[in-house]
Fold:
Amino acid sequence: MRALVYNNELQYLTDYPVPRPKHDEALIRTTHAGICNTDIEITKGYMGFKGVLGHEFVGVVEKCVDKSFLGKRVVAEINLGCGKCACCRNQMRNHCSDRSVLGILNKDGAFAEYVTLPVRNLHKIPNSITDEEAVFVEPLAAAYEIIGQVGISSSDRVCVLGDGKLGLLVAQVIESAGCKLSAIGRHREKLSILDEIGINTGLSPEFREREFDIVIDCTGSPSGIRTALRIVKPRGRIVLKTTIANKVQIDMNQFVINEISLIGSRCGPFQPAIKAIRSRQIDLYPLISNVYPIEEGLKAFQHASLKSALKVILKIN
Structure:
């Protein structure tokens, strides 16, 4: 099958083996998949992963023990827990110490004609959601995870740092909490997407030190946490969404001296994300930079790596 495979270099292959589903898994024909910043960081050494990349996708179930899924379009949660440990038993398989993660850790991903995943990870997609929109369910779910982790009140001054794909999604989700929201970025043309829907935006130098109760770092840059520390109030909270290959050195004393809480945030709930897309609460098409056939996958990665790029999507089947 056709696939984009990383093995110390990114390659487009036409003879990669079709995966065989296990007894509890479905075989899914991938139709579209989105290139995430995590995919780009993997090609720089993040997680030490080798294999088929890709974890944001939509596809059609072709084989499955659960007949209700056959022929249905689905998206999928990307963490595969062991099902036996304390984390899995307590509904935290995202933190299973023996987990695999689609296209990131010990599990071939979705930049291929076919992918396999446990049936319990699948979510059906309604007909009113297009394939291009469905690609955003996984990253949008990660944005909704913040709402569940951090109690945001109407009086909170909240800042979303970063005007990339995730930052623009997070800003739209946090705006629904009714707080005093600002989004900070470096690219006025990207921030204009938020301006159009009434979210306050600005460039980094426009904001004062110690201005925000909550700062959410979606920069994908080592500088993000440093900026967050500069603009968060004493006893404020920083939510860290950024994952990068390079290690970051920061002054940990600031967390103690200013009594700042640091909250890591990763994957999130799919159903709120699907509901938001279905109700058109989140505007996704302005976030799509281009759609490439998988045969042009290397070119698509080059495009996705540009600072000016937002979501680049691969059309696979």
